Amino acid sequence: MEASYKPIIEVGMTFSRNYGIPVIPNSAIKGSLAHYLNNNGLLGEHFKDLFGEDTKEGEDSENVRGCLIFLEAIPKSDLKFGVDIVNNHFQPYYMNSDCPPNDWYNPVPVTYITIAEGTFRFTLLKDNTQNRLPNEIFADVSKHLKHMLSESGIGAKTNYGYGRFKISGVGS
Predict the structure, then answer these.
(1) Could you tell me which residue, 9 or 14, shows the higher pLDDT?
(2) Gap between the Cα atoms of 35 and 151, Å rounded
């Protein structure tokens, strides 16, 4: 959990500071989409215009802002929460390099909260004051965002099905 205070249970879920509801941070969406586009060789010629760039390195760095504006993804429907566990079978091995991984250690179950069911609204805006990329490029970015959310997902444990979305709705 991330919030303006340190909660009792650290579960890796971000809650809105104002409303206390689970959200997907805009920085996570932007970073995941940028990674997806880079890995798949998509929109490379427009990447700097879309996401911006750091023009200098070191202490005197200057950032050039891109034309994409990412908002936090917020729930559109009631969310159903669930509980899952991670069973660390080799805790002594991970905590002390002198202990070899083996089957005689006791598993250490760690429970965490999940969102089992719900719908999120993802909002992507174009800042027309930054540059004049054609609307077709912005439409391509929106299409790639949908593909990224359904194919690659966002966040941790996507190989287990977490963070993958089904695209639905009018604005999808």
Answers:
(1) 14
(2) 13
**68 in helix, strand or coil?**
strand
Q: Give the DSSP H or E segment for 35.
A: helix 26-39
The rounded distance, in Å, linking the Cα atoms of 72 and 28 is 9
What is the Cα–Cα distance from 84 to 116, expressed in whole angstroms? 10
Please answer whether residues 52 and 71 qualify as being in contact, where contact means their C-beta atoms are separated by less than 8 angstroms: no
**How many Cα atoms occupy the beta-carbon half-sphere of 140 within 13 Å?**
13
Distance between CA atoms of residues 154 and 68, nearest Å: 18
Lookup result for tokens 């805790």: 91
Q: In the chain, count of helices (H) and strands (E)?
A: 4, 10
Give me 152's structure tokens. Answer: 């690659």
* Separation between Cα atoms, residue 17 and residue 23, nearest integer Å: 10
Q: How many CB atoms lie within 10 A of CB 7?
A: 11
The pTM of this model reads 0.80
Single-letter residue type at 114: T
* Cβ-contact 69, 126 below 8 angstroms: yes
**Tens digit of each residue's pLDDT (9 = 90 or more) over 96-133:** 778 787 777 788 788 888 899 999 999 999 988 866 78
